[in-house]
Specification:
Elements (H helix, E strand, L loop, with lengths): L1 E3 L2 H4 L8 H4 L2 E3 L8 H27 L9 H59 L2 H10 L33
Antiparallel strand pairs: 1-2
Length: about 180
């Protein structure tokens, strides 16, 4: 049931009605939507804001990422620290390699010394085996005219430095 208000009929008794309110229909006992236009504006504003957010996201994704708190000084400091660390690691590995090589050289030298000692011992034994002391005694006493030393001709000396004594002068006779 629709009722139309006539502006001339109610104009004298009511104050404060605007011209748009005078020519409106009243449909039953429900109130009509008064704020339909502001809702459209809010929806348009929300759509515009979502569109702006999407644009901002696209721009952010297209821009290179910058880490917060990493300025040029920090990057240079980290790069210098990495360079120093790499230098120390390289030097350590090089030193380890030198130690390994020196150990190998020591082992080779020890092997060489051991083989030389063995060769010297074999040669010395060969020399000892080749000398016949009875033959030397016969040649010394027979051909060269040497005589065996007597007990009073043997003098012993104590040397603190070595086990051999060299004679640089005449040894006095002791009676």
């Amino acid at each position: 049931m629709a009722v139309r208000r006539n502006s001339s009929r109610y104009s004298s008794g009511y104050r404060g009605y605007s011209a748009t309110e005078r020519h409106t229909y009243v449909d039953g006992n429900t109130v009509r939507r008064v704020d339909t236009l502001p809702r459209r504006r809010e929806e348009e504003r929300r759509r515009e804001e979502e569109r702006r957010k999407r644009l901002i996201r696209r721009r952010i994704l297209q821009q290179p990422v910058q880490m917060p708190g990493m300025d040029r000084v920090s990057v240079l400091f980290v790069a210098a620290a990495v360079a120093v660390t790499l230098y120390v690691c390289f030097t350590y590995i090089q030193t380890q390699n030198q130690v390994y090589e020196q150990k190998n050289q020591v082992v080779q030298m020890e092997y060489s010394i051991a083989s030389q000692k063995e060769g010297n011992a074999d040669a010395y034994q060969e020399i000892l085996d080749s000398v016949d002391l009875s033959e030397v005694y016969d040649k010394a006493t027979g051909k060269l005219g040497m005589v065996q030393a007597r007990d009073n001709q043997i003098h012993t000396y104590k040397s603190k430095k070595s086990d051999t004594v060299k004679q640089y002068g005449v040894i006095p006779e002791v009676r």
